[in-house]
UniProtKB/TrEMBL annotation:
<dbReference type="GO" id="GO:0005737">
    <property type="term" value="C:cytoplasm"/>
</dbReference>
<dbReference type="InterPro" id="IPR011009">
    <property type="entry name" value="Kinase-like_dom_sf"/>
</dbReference>
<dbReference type="GO" id="GO:0004674">
    <property type="term" value="F:protein serine/threonine kinase activity"/>
</dbReference>
<keyword id="KW-0418">Kinase</keyword>
<dbReference type="Pfam" id="PF00069">
    <property type="entry name" value="Pkinase"/>
</dbReference>
<dbReference type="InterPro" id="IPR000719">
    <property type="entry name" value="Prot_kinase_dom"/>
</dbReference>
<keyword id="KW-0808">Transferase</keyword>
<dbReference type="GO" id="GO:0035556">
    <property type="term" value="P:intracellular signal transduction"/>
</dbReference>
<dbReference type="GO" id="GO:0005524">
    <property type="term" value="F:ATP binding"/>
</dbReference>
<keyword id="KW-0067">ATP-binding</keyword>
<keyword id="KW-0547">Nucleotide-binding</keyword>
<feature type="domain" description="Protein kinase">
    <location>
        <begin position="1"/>
        <end position="138"/>
    </location>
</feature>
<keyword id="KW-0723">Serine/threonine-protein kinase</keyword>
<protein>
    <submittedName>
        <fullName>RKIN1 protein</fullName>
    </submittedName>
</protein>
Amino acid sequence: MWHAAVAEDLKPENLLLDEHKRIKIVDFGLSNRFDDNQLLKTACGSHCYAPPEMLSRQSYVPQMCDLWSCGVTLFVMVCGSLPFEDTDGHTLSKKIVAGNYTPPAFITDTVKDLIAGLLTVDPAKRFTIADVRAHESYRQIPEASVRPRDLVSGQCGLEEDVLQELKCHGPDPTRFQKLS
């Protein structure tokens, strides 16, 4: 069964909140189809949010790239700036591949730890979703560690009206079938 690697362009600009303050991921233009345990080689997404393995042109596990992008996004949301910045693309890539960033002093040690776990250069050592869900910073909000009902019951949570709107604009909504 294939999955959609939707977050190969995960960044704050592609996250929306609905009326219930639930995050909706948008802009699937750079998504990929992949089979379970399949490695990808496609370099795509926004440079500042791309993980080291993608920039190094290595084969990569899509979910681990998504978690790196979550780490960059978390850093941006907490700190108000990108962890890796440079006007020169080559220098920027070197910083990302080295994991060379400095968290500001004003963020707590637990948040620094969560960001560091997500921005771990070695994808085999990077935080997984389970690691994030178990992390002290994540668990500060009681409902944050509870899986949404639609995921528990096996539903993917995609809304039909959104899929219909996508269909009107060209992309094939079946690309975004439920994750299992």
